[in-house]
Amino acid sequence: MRALKWTGIVLGALIALGIAALLIIPLFMDAEEYTPQIEKMVTESTGCPFRMGGDLNLSLFPRTTIALSDLHLGSSPGFGEEDFVSVKSFEMNAELLPLLSGEVVIKRVILDSPRMVVTRGKDGKWNWGCLDKGPERPEKEAEPPEETGPASLPIQSLAVDEFLIRDGVVLFMDKTSGMKKEIRDFRLTLEDVSLDKPIRVGLSALLDGRPVSMTGTVGPVGQEPGKGSMDIDLHVAALEEMDIKVKGSIRDAAFDPYVDLDLRVPPFSPRKVMAALGRSLPMTPADPKALDSVALGMKIQGTPQTLSITDGVMEVDNSKILFAATATSFEKPNLSFDLHVDAINLDRYLPPEREKRPEPEEKKTGAPKSPGTDAEPLRRMILDGQISIGNLQVKKAKVKDLDMHITARNGRFQLDPLSLNMYDGSITGSAACDLSQDLPRHTAELTIKGVHINPLLQDLFQKDFLKGVFMAEWRLALEGKDTPTLKKTLNGQGELIFTHGTLKGVSLTDMARNVKRAFGAADKGSEQAHTDFSEVRVPFTAADGVIHTPKAVMVTPVMHLRAQGQADLVQETLDFRVVPKGAAILKGRGDSQDRSGITVPILVSGTFSSPKFRPDLEAIARQQLKKRLKGDASSADVIMDLLKKLQSGD
Question: Do residues 282 and 346 make contact, with C-beta atoms less than 8 angstroms apart?
């Protein structure tokens, strides 16, 4: 947070101010005479109002001491008289003679009861905005910046026995969102501060009443701070739930920064962490025990332009995730990654299923929709990633050995290859999504082999109406930003094949062989009725969301059934006609059931969720009239038309 950066600047300025005062204020002068000058200097240099409400005390013997009290750094205009930073007292004790020779020997630095209030107004402005503006300076001609490295300190050595900030308070208030955070009892201790040895760090505070602490070592910082390598070994304990260990180094922090860190987070409960912060999880998982244990480890190396993560390991409940990633050119993100998951049940982490709610009134009245997601960041992205999952469950469907390679450039995302195993079968293919235009375009090619369809339907839809082995090939294209539009624009072709299966709930062979049985099956919808088949083959084409099947075939033990018609994906309706063939030839092959009678075409209608089957009685009557009239088709048509009119009352 930029506010924290400016806090460090303010604290550093106080120390520098103390050292300067020790050097420039003679013993015999009244230090309080310098209070207005100091206030003016700080105000002009920071851009924020500064005042010293207490005394400025200076003594040189037995040690050089400077003490300031009741310090106030004001907020930006528009935030009233509330201070951005206030300090009850500041005291620094130093040895004078070493200071005169360029050696800084400080016995102690104490900052007592500092208080920071970070406020964001309803207009989105921050109360520390004046720090960004700084003092007003006359305009000068632009000069080329000089290339300079980190500056050396104008001292020979530095030694601080004790640096202490105690009883600190930080208040954060965001009036745009109503969020409030409070840090109290802030305490920072630095021991053995020097330029050539590691500095021991101790920090503790209460975040919204919950303890946070950090211990460890930093440094040495060197004679030229920000140049060379600085080691870090820190342990952070937060909210009585999390332990974070960071070890490594930062090189050339002020000039050409490079980090090489090892991050380790032992198992913790995200649920308990969020509860400690007084917040809930961003999304409520279906499983109340999900996200109860998470552990993390990784190595981080990088610069402001490039970041690399290696040896990444994350354990989420019972899942283990191995990952590595590299990111460059953050303005135009170039990301590559490799992700492997041994097993994960995503259903545990997805929101629980709820009953379908009625659509809002604005949708029913045709009110304008809210603007879609801005795709411009995705168009700038360059992506190259590999994902593999050993065992996956999503929407209760079970997948094994998922492997996919995803790439992206200029808004064109490609998933190729894609392979997985499920229900004793396999799926291979590729897919693409083109976001380079305002209207996204999608394509997919899939090959499915040997998938047992019944357990898949039961897991995915909780439906038990079809058994068999499923195979398919299709090439589809569609475009749009929402599901209704995608359905309307579906185009392509393919073929579905089912072998050695059973269609439950309806006996198409009985319906096709006998009108009486057909009526009974249609009326009762017996669950015991079924249709065994050796093969179902459905070649199809898709045009603007309507699936056409001109030559679908079902082969059963007693007959062949041929079907043609269409399925409307937008309306989710069915319109098919099934015609039986070859019944007389198959009679008598060890089948003792009575299969005499006429064959009956079958009409399939209704919806995807509730299909309806009924005999095509009009076709039967027309066929029988033709036979009685000895093939006189025109007379049969006249009689059928007359019967229709009588039935309708015309």
Answer: no
In this structure, the chain runs to a length of 650
3-state secondary structure of 179: strand
Report the distance separating Cα 299 and Cα 308, nearest Å. Answer: 8
What's the CA gap between 601 and 505, in Å, rounded?
Answer: 18
Asked if residue 218 lies in contact with residue 243, where contact means CB atoms within 8 angstroms, the answer is: no
Phi, psi dihedrals of residue 97, rounded to the nearest 5°: -60, -45
Residue 307 CB-density burial (10 A; 0-12 exposed, 13-18 middle, 19+ buried)? middle
Supply 437's token pair. 């235009």
Element (H, E) at 586: helix 583-586
Q: What is the pLDDT of residues 78-137, one digit of tens each?
A: 777 678 889 999 888 877 665 555 566 777 889 999 999 888 888 888 887 777 655 554
Burial 194-216 (b: 16+ CB within 10 A, else e): ebeebbebebebebeebebebeb
Helix, strand, coil percent content, the chain, rounded in steps of 5: 20, 50, 30
Domain boundaries in the chain? Answer: 1-131+156-194, 465-615, 617-650
- 453 in helix, strand or coil? helix
Q: Report yes or no: 529 and 602 within 8 Å, Cβ to Cβ.
A: no
Q: Yes or no: say if 201 and 218 are a contact pair by the CB < 8 Å rule.
A: yes
Relative orientation angle of helices 633-648 and 617-628, to the nearest 10 degrees: 140
Is residue 188 a contact partner of residue 170, using CB atoms and an 8 Å limit? no
CA gap 168, 185 in Å, rounded? 6
CB of 507 closer than 8 Å to CB of 513: no
- Strand stretches in 480-601, DSSP E: 491-504, 530-543, 546-555, 560-568, 573-581
- From the list 102, 114, 153, 130, the residue with the least C-alpha distance to 43 is 130
Cα separation, 447 vs 429, in Å, equals 6
Sign of CA dihedral 177, 178, 181, 182: positive
Rg (CA), the chain: 39
The tens digit of pLDDT for each residue in 1-16 reads 444 445 555 555 555 5
* Strand boundaries in 435-483, DSSP class E: 441-452, 466-479
Q: What is the pLDDT of residue 153?
A: 47
Task: List, for residues 345-393, the tens digit of each pLDDT value.
Answer: 999 998 887 644 444 444 444 444 444 556 778 888 899 999 999 999 9
Residues of the chain with pLDDT under 50: 1-5, 23, 25-29, 137-142, 145, 147, 149-154, 355-371, 518-525, 583-597, 645-650
Tokens of 153: 């300190």
